[in-house]
Amino acid sequence: MPAGKNIIDKVNQLKEKLADADYRYYVLDEPDISDIDYDMMMKELEKLEAEYPELKTADSPTGRVSGEPTKKFEVVNHEVPMLSLSNSYNYEELDDFDTRIQNLIPEQNYEYVCELKFDGLAVSLVYENGIFVRGATRGDGTKGDDVTKNLKTIRSIPLKVKSDTYKNFEVRGEVFIKKDDFEKINEEQEIRGEKLFANARNTAAGTLKLKDNREVASRPLNIFIYYFRTNDKPPVSHFDNMEILKKLKFPVNNFTKKVSSIDEVKKFCDEIEVKRDSLPYEIDGVVVKVDSLAQQDTIGSVAKSPRWAIAYKFKAKQQITKIKDITLQVGRIGTITPVAELEPVFLAGSTISRATLHNFDEIRKKEIRVGANVKIEKGGDVIPKVVEVIKDKDFSKLKDFEIPDKCPVCKSKLVKPEEEVNYYCVNYFCHAQVQGRLEHFVQRDAMEIEGLGTSIIEVFLKNNFIKDFTDLYELHKRREELIGLERFGEKSITNLLAAIEESKKKPFEKVLFALGIRHIGEKTAKIIVKHFGSIEKLESASAEEISSVYEVGPKIAASVKSFFEDKASLQMIEKLKKAGLNFKIDESKKVKFNGNFKDKTFVLTGSLEKYTRDKASQIIEEFGGKVSSSVSKKTDYVLAGEEAGSKLDKAKKLGVKIISETDFEKMIG
Ligand code: IVH
Hints:
Elements: H1 5-27, H2 35-51, E1 75-77, E2 87-88, H3 91-104, E3 112-118, E4 121-128, E5 131-137, E6 143-145, H4 148-152, E7 169-176, H5 179-191, H6 200-208, H7 213-217, E8 222-230, H8 238-247, E9 257-259, H9 262-275, E10 283-290, H10 293-299, E11 301-302, E12 305-306, E13 309-313, E14 318-330, E15 336-347, E16 350-356, H11 360-366, E17 373-377, E18 385-389, E19 414-415, E20 424-425, H12 431-442, H13 454-462, H14 479-484, H15 490-503, H16 508-514, H17 522-532, H18 535-540, H19 543-547, H20 554-565, H21 567-579, H22 587-593, E21 601-605, H23 613-622, E22 626-628, E23 637-640, H24 646-654, E24 657-659, H25 661-667
Helix pairs in contact: 1-2, 16-17
The chain binds 2-(butylsulfanyl)adenosine.
């Protein structure tokens, strides 16, 4: 049955509301609806589109993540080549640039637009009839890869623009990952035992080339647009273009500024360099562009870069210093990480005296030795890295670093699994591990027990108030003793005990993450909890079952299994359960989340593939719906399986909504 006017209106309304919510959240940073409302609208739209496939258009927000993985990216020819910029590294070079401009457009007034130089990768987005139809990487400048599907996952990119003037155009911009998102992704990689990304830019580049856009969607890509080209109504200046783009609801960076002299450009560069470290995304300089498009045309381009623009690059965030010593850190799961103790140097806003060396393989490959001069760098993350050793004349006199065989903390023998680069201390009771597990448990992204920092944990361990995190929930019994401790008072202990009590409300996914099971980061914990729902179900699941969950591989499955095989883990869970922590999904939240079931009447007919009738009925009721045995006008949904008979016919006759098993699964999330 084709969709009636009401349905069409409803679908259009939902699309518009969702696009508006994306704009407010991702471009303006002023969200105005809750996540739950957003999800519910999205579910409703998905459902309607499943029912009326003809209403699913290219601009639908449901298409932001969809379809089969891409096998091979198609090649896209850029209609206008994507040029690069020539660089300048100091203000004399900026003056030279300005002189060249004066000579190229003699006796003309001109203005510059200053922008940030984002450290990501350039992409082109083509719109036809107001619809985003094709997105491509820069490639070699003349042709790139068609990454439309991946770009659609970036919610600040409008899938459709509403404008009477501008319908057919191209925009270009820089795709990037924010600094803190990059750190999260790397933490997640580390916990899962996967390779770390070198910096935010590489992460963004790698993500844009992923074949599965579901995976892309799980990595938060962003974009700033800095170029507009159209024949619809030829624009006159770059700055005006940016204003037009803002009106068309594209994400344009707010620092973009028009100035009228090279001195003002320098001032802008100074101001931005100071702000650089505090920006949430990486930049490596400032881009200066002649504002007038007519003047840009006159000035023209040479080889691969325009003469009307230049990049002013900030000083490299690198320094040379000496390695005084190499010490070892023991992580919460016993991982040994070598750390370079450096002669302190000032680098991009702070004094650096330590840098991670990652593992012994790195030390060997880079020939890192105590006493060597090294180049260090601050990348996308805050922790500095040793880039390379300077092989000066004294280098050959230095001794190779010897891999230690004992844990620096508990002195037990170190172990190196064959397939890994890391060495481990395998003494579960090693002080460093106990401390590490506790710090992990109480951190903000886990149980969020405020007031329980590194030094307080140390004091509690030393004074035998706790042996592990399960003891935290017994601490209230020793309130008076705690108040008596040096440095503590009644108020701080009261607050701390209240924070511990409050942590019991944390949802299951946070608890699972807090347990510190190897390879289970925040994201994996969420996925596992969503799939299994309770610790009992997870415990009884087979390794195959666990690894078949999307994004959970065999490594994670093996780790979960080995965790549950350990009696100590089971005892720990029992203790935490007794304390009142959550080990299953909060069903009351689920009802709210799936509000589209509330008070709705379902009729089941035919046979379902994955559910028995009883199971399907139970789910409907759990989500707040009702199940009835006969179809009437009051029926909201008929869930039809294979070989559905008269009930289906009746539903069709009465115009009752018919849903498939797949629709049903989508509804229950
Ligand atoms: S304009 C011809 N503006 O820098 C103009 N590029 O070296 C070239 N980039 O490929 C693009 N921020 O990836 C422009 N505000 C900005 C930019 C920017 C970063 C990148 C872009 C480009 C590269 C050129």
